[in-house]
Amino acid sequence: MKKLLLVSVLMLLSLTSAGCGKSGEPIRKTALKLNTVVQVTIYDSQDESLLDGCMEVCDRYEQLLSRTVDTSEISRLNSGETDLVSEETAGLIRRGLYYGDLSEGAFDIAIEPVSRLWDFTAETPSLPDREDLEKALPLVDYRGVHVDGCRVTFDQAGMGIELGAIAKGYIADRLKEYLLANGVKSAVINLGGNVLCVGSRPDGKPFQIGIQKPYAGYQEITAVAEITDLSVVSSGIYERYITVDNKQYHHILDPKTGMPFDNGLVAVTVFTKDSTDGDALSTACFALGMEKGMELLENLDGVYGGIFITKDYELHYTEGLKGRIKITETPNSGK
User: Fold this and answer.
1) pLDDT digit string (tens) for 174-183?
2) SS3 per-residue string spanning 12-79
């Protein structure tokens, strides 16, 4: 499991050289949290307590948003133990419903009845039982989720919410708020590959964020982007998957079929101001496919654009992205 998590976190590798804190080196902390590897690097402070504070922020939101922690608000909501959640959880559910509308259902936070049938960490992988899938599919419909203040209700018994495609981005934004409130102006937050840059390097130069070549080791980078105060989030079929009868099944599930999307894409990387948006949009655009995904990104405020990688390992850029962000493809970008 730890090996899988390390592969996931290194989906986007920060290539930034050491910054110039008071001692000339950045401070950082790495921990297993949120079912992934969390790393926070601070470049303009030597206050180690800020790193501990960041980990406490992660723990707090895991208790709100995790589907797999039995005591979390989302778990208690899904089990029917309560229909009341905190204002923050209710707000994020509303945000997830917004992206359901925006993607015409391709992004669906009500996927939980199906997603709980898949186990991408099993030592002996297997596909969900077809009969179980057929029973679960009618329960997958974000339009059947209703939020009234802090009360969340479902149209049908057995429905549930999965915030895995938006929660890490939301937590990254909260970590940024925490760091800014404590005087930090130069940092990199990496939550399992969801990268959010706070400001720029101490010397004013942008951070260099490498985008991993799909299915390659994390040392192999397909492109490098220069980023200042932006979020970079990728969704891809190489992040979490199982192999059954020599066929790969990845974790980005189609709400209509309960099976992984098969649309010719390997990965989508999205550049946004807020990581919450980037997290949701990377999944939504992958689900929509390249043509519709690009169209969506090009018509949203706060979105700088995206990179779509197809199964032939070609990189396809949204219009205007390179005019906003300097991106350099590496020599090994191709297959």
Assistant:
1) 999 999 999 9
2) EEECCCCCCCCCCCCEEEEEEECCEEEEEEECCCCCHHHHHHHHHHHHHHHHHHCCCCCCCHHHHHHC
